[in-house]
Structure formats: structure tokens, C-alpha cells
Amino acid sequence: MNIQNFFGIAGGIVSSVTFLPQVIKIWKTKSAKDLSMVTLFFLILNVSLWLTYGALIGDLPLMITNGIVLAMVLMMVYFKLTFKQ
Amino acid sequence: MNIQNFFGIAGGIVSSVTFLPQVIKIWKTKSAKDLSMVTLFFLILNVSLWLTYGALIGDLPLMITNGIVLAMVLMMVYFKLTFKQ
């Protein structure tokens, strides 16, 4: 594994877990008032673009990473709509 | 510009503006209580990895995108520490 792959994969792993603490915090506090729905929308658009880019260049790590992030962001949108505070 | 470049650059542009609405919302409401500091930490680690990866492969768009995102995340950490709610 060369150093470039290392950073690419490390970046992918970190990206995948990045939003987990935020999802857990919202779940625990049942509050997502301070989160910006516009930012969540951009996050969905963002990971969808990277997901498409990954598919086009056949980069599985990029697709897996952004698939996981997409799932977490969709959960945050669902919580924000559900915990209407 | 082939389609791969399009998605790469589009992803970069969207990534750069993604957190702007969140920074503005925190600034307006002076509240960042619902944001997870752990997620902000992972975001910093995440963009630092992608910044390093971009530098290693000499990919300027990747470096610019993640430089902008890093600045915005650092602002959110500063606000979260400042607006102590």
C-alpha cells in the first residue's frame, strides 16, 4: 500500500464515522434545533455527487464511504423532521 | 472537460458551500448546543486527511475544497466554545 492509498482509505474511514457522534447526540437529546436543514441538504447533494463520481471512476472505497455518510445524513434529516424543536 | 472532472469539481464546489448555512445559522441564533463537538473533531481530522491526500497527489481542487471546509469547521468549533449553551 503506497502512502496515497493510505490517506485515501484513512480519509474514507474517518469520513464514514464523522457524523456518527452527531446522529447519536441528536438521538439522545431528541433535539436537532441548531442543525441547519440547508446544510443537511447540501450534504446529501455533496455525497450524491461523490457517490456518482466514485461510480464513474469505479472507486469502491469512495462509493462505500459516501454511501455510509448518505445513510447518516438521511437519519439526521428524519430526526430533524421528527423531533420538531 | 470530461464527465469525471465535472463531478469532481461539482463535488468540490458543493463541499465548499455545504457548511456555510450551518455557520450562518449558528451566528444568527448564537446557539450551537445541538452540534456534536466529536463530529466537529472528526470533520477537522477528515478534511486534514483529504488536504494531505490532495497535496500528495497534487490535486489543487481537492486542496482548495478541503481548505475552505477546514476554515468553516474551525469557525463552528470557535462558535460552539464561545456561545457556551
UniProtKB/TrEMBL annotation, chains A, B:
<keyword id="KW-1133">Transmembrane helix</keyword>
<keyword id="KW-0472">Membrane</keyword>
<dbReference type="Pfam" id="PF04193">
    <property type="entry name" value="PQ-loop"/>
</dbReference>
<feature type="transmembrane region" description="Helical">
    <location>
        <begin position="36"/>
        <end position="56"/>
    </location>
</feature>
<dbReference type="InterPro" id="IPR006603">
    <property type="entry name" value="PQ-loop_rpt"/>
</dbReference>
<keyword id="KW-0812">Transmembrane</keyword>
<feature type="transmembrane region" description="Helical">
    <location>
        <begin position="62"/>
        <end position="81"/>
    </location>
</feature>
<keyword id="KW-0762">Sugar transport</keyword>
<protein>
    <submittedName>
        <fullName>SemiSWEET family sugar transporter</fullName>
    </submittedName>
</protein>
<keyword id="KW-0813">Transport</keyword>
